[in-house]
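task queued by scheduler; priority normal; single chain, no ligands, no partner chains; default sampling; output format set to structure tokens
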Amino acid sequence: MTKWIDLISEYLQIVIGILLASIGLKAFLLPNGFLDGGVTGIAILISEKTQLDISYLLVGISIPFLGLAWYTVSRRIVYKSMVSIIGLALFIHFENFVPITEDKLLIAIFGGLFLGAGIGLTIKNGAVLDGAEILGIFANEYYGISIGKVILTFNVILFAITAKLLSVEVAMYSVLTYLVTAKVIDYMIEGFEDYIGLLIVSNEASALEKLLIEEVGTGMTIYQGVKGYGSRGQQEDLQVMQMVINRIDIRKTYKAINKVDKKAFIIEFDVNAIQGGILRKYLSKQGLKSLWSMTTG
């Protein structure tokens, strides 16, 4: 029963994603000749030059990319992506949204926002609306080229062709649309809260642990290091602290560390996803006291 509920939830969210993407296209981008990146951008460009129906182009151009997906991702993703792309094509074909604005900047920003929200929600539920990501996965799988570089190269070529065939201005606004779309996709997949990790090596680990719990309110993991080499020479029996914080707390965290040990060695790294553990937003003052009592008790 739970499996069916999860499946229905996934497809419901994919439908919402398709609706959002189609609003971005029909209410903003298409009436004004703006492009996005990837397969969607290719379909819009060809439609602008040939007057062919973009819904047919979207499905036709996606077929080779779905073929690549057959050899690079799971069959389930391929099937769901086929349904999603056909669904988007149908929405675009039958929807008749009235253009909301003629302001080019608003068109680029809000078109990218709706399109990115739709693509991001679809990806989050195991499907794709654009084949450029599949091309990136394929190139990474067989040639070791990073997915980001493949997608960037793909879109640089697309926007260069756009500047040549349409206009430099359209290409520039299309780049803005693509940037907004990409950022919104990240937000939809990873969430709006931006977390980073810190790895800290300090001779004042005990005092630093207490202060970070009191002032930042975050959980942490402490490793026992055997030996280390650095500006202080060789050190033994080190304590290494690892923690995850919201990026908004980074300045406060560094200030707390400097209060105790200005020479602490710190490595900062991006965190794509977290699950479980203790985050600051869940800790009341009583929770902080309990956390500290657990670490000292």
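post-processing summary
- Residues 2-190 form one domain.
- The longest strand covers residues 233-246.
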